[in-house]
């Protein structure tokens, strides 16, 4: 691979990976585009973060785009000069320069934060999650502060019991009461966590904290049986099915009003084997993903319908830099034209056909910067739409991320779920491996199917 470095003053300072769909006439489905710019980094004076971002944006107006079939180099190599450039950024206004962005680094955490539960449960969740940051403090841990956090959460759980249970549908009330009791007194509850903190065993506290937050998430899911917002009228009523340019078939909403679980069985295409941790080597492996209709109802709904229709059975996988992406679809007559759908953090409904500006502090509820994130590729026709069928697993690598450990493509794709089982399988997938089967094993009752007219 060669770059046109015609001048000794040419410096690589910015790199972006793009996952984009191409039609078959291009003889390739996906490329990674590396954007580079000519930049002089001799100055060392302190510069406010916002002005730095503005300068970078101006420089990017005249970029050189170099397409490559397979990007195998670390993006961090391109970012190093940029890091030097902003060594002393002054007041950090952009989220990329803040060490306290608290972007979730696992799918489980991201999914838990995305549940639209009531304010009391979110207060309990936030209070407990702060303990994870306290556990990172080296040497002497602030166990007193941790104990105070748990007692605060315990008080909310006890004092606001009626309010917490009131938001659970009548048919789930009994189960909700049992989970609430478990949150307080159960093995994976607050009292057990409190005892672990008193013993001042950091490892034990971490295990108990994870168990308690799992119980919190279970109760929150009972509080959120459906969407907490109304879809925009143009998407809630009808939109065209993407089959042929001349077709005018109208449909009502296709969406997932909650959570679903999809199980992939992936087979080695070259006859080799996977090496699952603690298991025997086989030529097939299982990967499970949780898809989230709370934050991406249209995208998750379209994907769930494709899975139920068997659209991905037999689909080949391709490996590019930091992603495992499906081919262009076994049957292009399936799938719907879904607008780019991103729920910004702190908002109550998704944005459509709009990307987020990470430099200005915008982050999605379901971030791409998580290993095993599940997202749709862009449409061949427009980046305002997701591909009707082509998805990818994102293999996040903080060594190839921007400042603050955030992916360069954060806020640019419709992320709609995360890998929860089989993350160790993802890096073993190679180009040519095949999705032997994809099944919706949970969430069929939450899938709202379209009615053709």
TrEMBL record:
SUPFAM superfamilies, A to Z: Cyclophilin-like
Entry keyword set: Isomerase, Thylakoid
Alphabetized PROSITE patterns for the sequence: CSA_PPIASE_2
UniProt-listed Gene3D superfamilies: Cyclophilin-like, Oxygen-evolving enhancer protein 3 (PsbQ), four-helix up-down bundle
Chain segments annotated as transmembrane: none
Single annotated GO MF: peptidyl-prolyl cis-trans isomerase activity
Domain PPIase cyclophilin-type span(s) in chain numbering: 274-453
Protein name, per record: Peptidyl-prolyl cis-trans isomerase CYP37, chloroplastic isoform C
């Amino acid at each position: 691979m060669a770059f046109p470095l015609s001048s000794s003053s040419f410096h690589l300072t910015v790199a972006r990976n793009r996952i984009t769909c191409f039609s078959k006439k291009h003889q390739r489905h996906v490329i990674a585009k590396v954007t580079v710019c000519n930049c002089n980094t001799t100055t060392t004076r302190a510069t406010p973060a916002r002005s730095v971002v503005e300068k970078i944006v101006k420089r990017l107006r005249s970029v050189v785009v170099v397409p490559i079939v397979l990007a195998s180099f670390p993006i961090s190599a391109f970012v190093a000069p940029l890091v030097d450039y902003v060594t002393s950024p002054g007041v950090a206004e952009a989220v990329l320069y803040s060490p306290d962005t608290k972007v979730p680094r696992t799918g489980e955490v991201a999914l838990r934060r995305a549940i639209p539960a009531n304010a009391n449960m979110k207060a309990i969740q936030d209070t407990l999650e702060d303990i994870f940051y306290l556990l990172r403090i080296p040497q002497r841990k602030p166990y007193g502060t941790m104990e105070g956090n748990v007692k605060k959460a315990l008080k909310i759980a006890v004092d606001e019991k009626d309010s917490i249970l009131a938001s659970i549908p009548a048919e789930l009330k009994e189960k909700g009461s049992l989970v609430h009791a478990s949150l307080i007194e159960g093995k994976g509850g607050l009292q057990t966590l409190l005892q672990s903190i008193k013993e001042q065993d950091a490892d034990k506290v971490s295990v108990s904290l994870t168990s308690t937050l799992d119980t919190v998430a279970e109760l929150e899911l009972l509080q959120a049986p459906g969407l907490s917002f109304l879809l925009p009228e143009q998407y809630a009523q009808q939109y065209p099915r993407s089959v042929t340019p001349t077709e005018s078939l109208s449909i009502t909403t296709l969406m997932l009003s909650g959570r679903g679980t999809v199980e992939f069985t992936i087979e080695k295409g070259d006859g080799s084997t996977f090496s699952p941790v603690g298991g025997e080597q086989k030529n097939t492996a299982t990967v499970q993903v949780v898809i989230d209709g709370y934050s991406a109802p249209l995208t998750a709904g379209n994907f769930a319908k494709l899975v139920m229709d068997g659209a991905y059975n037999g689909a080949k996988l391709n490996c590019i830099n930091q992603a495992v992406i499906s081919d262009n679809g076994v049957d292009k007559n399936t799938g719907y034209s879904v607008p780019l759908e991103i729920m910004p953090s702190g908002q109550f409904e998704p944005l459509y056909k709009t990307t987020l500006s990470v430099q200005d502090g915008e982050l999605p509820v379901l971030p791409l910067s998580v290993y095993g994130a599940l997202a749709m590729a862009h449409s061949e026709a427009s980046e305002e739409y997701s591909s009707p069928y082509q998805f990818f697993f994102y293999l996040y690598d903080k060594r190839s991320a921007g400042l603050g450990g955030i992916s360069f493509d954060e806020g640019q794709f419709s992320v709609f779920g995360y890998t929860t089982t089989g993350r160790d399988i993802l890096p073993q997938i190679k180009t040519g491996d095949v999705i032997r089967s994809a099944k919706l094993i949970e969430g069929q009752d939450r899938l709202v199917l379209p009615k053709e007219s």
